[in-house]
Design goal:
Blueprint: H1 2-24, H2 33-46, H3 48-63, H4 67-70, H5 79-87, H6 98-112, H7 128-146, H8 150-157, H9 159-178, H10 183-211, H11 217-242, H12 249-256, H13 260-268, H14 276-281, H15 285-296, H16 304-323, H17 327-333, H18 335-353, H19 356-369, H20 375-398, H21 405-433, H22 436-453, H23 466-475
Helix pairs in contact: 1-16, 2-13, 3-10, 3-11, 3-13, 3-19, 6-7, 7-10, 8-9, 8-10, 9-10, 9-12, 9-13, 10-11, 10-23, 11-12, 11-20, 15-16, 17-18, 18-23, 20-22, 21-22
Amino acid sequence: MAFARQTDVDAVASQSEVKRLLDLDTTPWYKRPNLRTLYFTLIPAVLGCEMTSGYDGSILNGLQAVGPWLTCTYTTRGYHDRVRRSLTMIADFNTPTGAILGAMNAAFEPYFGLLTTPYTHPTHRPWLATLVLTQDIMQSIGAVLALPIVPYVNDRVGRKHSITIGSAIIVVGVILQTASMNLAMFIVARIVLGLGIPFCIGGASQLIAELTFPRHSAIINGLFNESWYAGAIIAAGVTLGTFSRPDNWSWRIPSLLQMLPSLLQLTFIWFVPESPRWLVSRDRSDEAFDILVKHHAEGDRNSPLVHAEFAEIQHTVRAELEFSKRRWVELLQTPGNRKRTFIAACVGLFSQWSGNGLVSYYLAKVLSTVGITNKRTQQQINLSLSCWNLITGVSGAFLTKVFRRRTQYLMAFIGMTIVFACWTGASADYANTKNKNAAGAVVGMIFVYYWAYTLMHPLTTSVRLQSEDMSYWDDC
């Protein structure tokens, strides 16, 4: 216990020294050749993780305005025959019973009602929302399955290999999704995609936090989160360009292009150094020190800042390796960790329950409720919203230097509450009066809402527990 207290004191002293030396260092990043090269390499190697997630989140929005995807054209026969073809997948599971049958019923039970549902225009089909929700749930199931594995892989094989594993899984999922010949194959592909994304995000978030220059860490982590919208822009643009095709390639092309960020990661990750903290934890301190010297001191092995950083890493890792035997239990062992875990759970849950799901997955349906039913208009609004979100998200990332992190959270949640209340009121007004001004207000409120939503992603955990909490947060 005395060793733990002394190590904590040493770590705090090292952190204070790092902060003091950072205040004395005024050289901008773009005047540091090695650091500049590192950052330009990180963009394709790491930011693609959230881009893949954003592409995946946006593609379902776009596909809801794609005719062949809506009508499930896996056969040229009539509507009811197409539904029956989708349901015949059940016979391929050798007459499932018990828990397996129950799980399949939970996923596919809504589709049995299609057999007695009269054919209507695709936008009026009552099962469309359930179809999208089921496919979104399947992706989430994959993410939940990865939750207990990601931290161990991340800390066992390193941040870079975690990104590589996740990217490879995503490529497999994209191939399955693009080649889907029936609903079952598409849903399995969604599960595989959900399995790969947490490996990428878990490894990338820690690699950024542990490899970047200390002064830039918060900003780059914010940019990492907001790169989600860069992927969403690409997905929205691609679906806008292909949705008018009359064949299945109107949705297969957007699906196929989803693998591009992962292919970039698999190519460029080998040019990025490993996390110094992970190297120290694996008794590879010399390599860690060399990386810090090269990228944080431009080759100056006598740099006081690098020595202070290295000492802080050693003190922290030594204490954590000494006392961290049961990793997940650590999340609840101390009052501080319990508080951080509670915050991570709340932020993860609240960020998904704050109303963003309405637009993230059901934008076409939301727009239809206020009279905007033209498919091209819906695609254009989807693309415009993704561009707007990227602009506001990047701006929010730089606000970490202006506002405290808790202040940003409060600004975000208070803003979302106010805007969502106005949004709900305008929607109710349109439903009662068909007032076009109310419909315009709904569209405007969607954009303002996301301006508030993009403010709220700073880290709250200790370095050692980031792997667990980032996985936990992502899967909430």
